[in-house]
Amino acid sequence: MLVATPRIFPPLESAPESLASLACKRACRDSEDDKLVSHTNVCLSSHTYATLIDTYGKGGQFRAACETFARIIRQGRSLNTVTLNTMIHLYGNCGRLRQACLLFQKMGEFRCVPDTWTYNILISLNIKNNKVKLAAKYFARMKKAFLEPDVVSYRTLLYAYSTRKMVREAEELIREMDERDLEIDEFTQSALTRMYVESGMLEQSWLWFRRFHLAGNISSDCYSANIDAYGERGYTLAAEKVFICCKEKKKLTVLEFNVMIKAYGIGKCYDKACQLFDSMKKFGVVADKCSYSSLIHILASADKPHIAKSYLKKMQEAGLVSDCVPYCVVISSFTKLGQFEMAEELYKEMLRYVVQPDVIIYGVFINAFADAGSVKEAINYVNEMRKAGLPGNPAIYNSLIKLYTKVGYLKEAQETYK
C-alpha cells in the first residue's frame, strides 16, 4: 500500500458527532472542480480503497479522498492505522481540525491503534496552529502509550521551542535526544543557536555552536545561518568568530561572505565590510548580485555614496545590474547630502547603460529639488517621468504642491492638487 507522509495535525477537542454522519455530510464540499472517480456500484477490496485514499491525498483531491473514506465506512470495510493517519493528515492539512480530532478519538472504535506517525501528525498540526503546549501534551501522551518518539517527533517539537525562545523546554528535549543518541540536524542546530542569542545567552550559544563545529557536522549553509544569528543582533565579533571557523574548515562560499558583510553593516563596521568584499577573490569566491547590493545599500545608508558608487560601477561591469534599484539607493544618498550634481551625473550614467529609471528615482529627484526650492529642476524631472510614461504618486504630488506654495505658484499648486 502506498503511504502518505503525514506532516500536519489536530488538537484534542470533544466531537460528539459520529464519524459516519460527518463523513457523509459532504465535509469536503469545498472543491467543486475536483473530479471524482465514481465506483459506487463496484465492489473493491479494503486494500484498494486505502490505496485510492492515499492516491487522492497525494494528488490534492481532498473531496475524492473523503468520499472514498465515507464509502469504506458505509460498507463496513476494515481500516488500518496507515489509512486513518492519511485521513487525519488530509483533514488537518485542509484546516478541518474538528474532523481530524474526531477521527483520532475514534481510532479505537475501528480497532486501530495510534502509532508514532499518528502522534507526529498531531504534534505538527498543533505547532502549525501555535498550540505548542498541546503539542507537548501529545508528545507526553505518546510516551504514556509506550511508543518511542522518533527523531521527527523530537525535531518538530525542539524547533518549535527554539523559535519561541522556550529555553528550559528545549534543553530538556536535547538531554533526552543525547541520552537516546538521536542526531540533531543542522537546521535545528542553527535554530537553537539563534534561540540562545536572542535570549541573551551568548556563552551558551557559543558552546552549542562549538559542539557541532568541532564534530565537523556543519555545512556551509549552516555556518551562514549561525553567522546571521549573531550578526542580526549586532554581535559582530561573535559573527566574525563563526566566519573564521568556517574558513578554517575551508567551507567558505558566497553565502558566508554575504551574511558577514550584512553583519558588518548592522555593526557599522563599514571599512571591514569593504575589506571583506574585496578579499572574496582571494578565496576563489565570486561576488553575486546580493553581495554587491548589500554592500552598496550599507554604504549609501551610511552617507558614503562616493564609496558605494565605486562598487556600483564594479557591479555594472560584472553584468549584475538588472534594474535601477542600486542606482536609486546611491542617487538618494547623494541628494540627501545635497550633492545634486553627483546624483544627476550618476542618473545620466544609468541611462547610458540603458537601465530604465522608475517612479521612485524620479520621486527622489523631485522631492530633493522641491525641498531645495528649485522649481525648474523639479519640473524637469516631472516632465522626464511623464515622457517615460510613468504615473506620479501621492508623495511626488505633495512635494510639488509644497514647492509651488513655497515659491508662490498658487495656480500651479491648485492644478497639481486636482
Which properties best describe this structure?
single chain, 418 residues, 23 helices
What does this molecule look like?
The protein has 418 residues and is mainly α. It is built from 23 helices and no strands. The longest helix has 14 residues, at 394-407. It is extended, with a radius of gyration of 30 Å.
Give me the Rg, rounded. Answer: 30 Å
Largest sheet: none
Helix/strand-derived class?
mainly alpha
Which percent range fits the helix content?
Answer: 55-70%
* Helix-strand sequence: HHHHHHHHHHHHHHHHHHHHHHH
Strand content range = under 5%
What topology emerges from the helices and strands here?
Elements: H1 19-24, H2 46-58, H3 62-74, H4 81-93, H5 97-105, H6 116-128, H7 132-144, H8 151-163, H9 167-179, H10 186-198, H11 202-214, H12 220-232, H13 236-248, H14 254-266, H15 270-278, H16 289-301, H17 305-317, H18 325-336, H19 340-352, H20 359-371, H21 375-387, H22 394-407, H23 410-417
Helix pairs in contact: 2-3, 2-4, 4-5, 4-6, 6-7, 6-8, 7-8, 8-9, 8-10, 10-11, 10-12, 12-13, 12-14, 13-14, 14-15, 14-16, 15-16, 16-17, 16-18, 17-18, 18-19, 18-20, 20-21, 20-22, 22-23
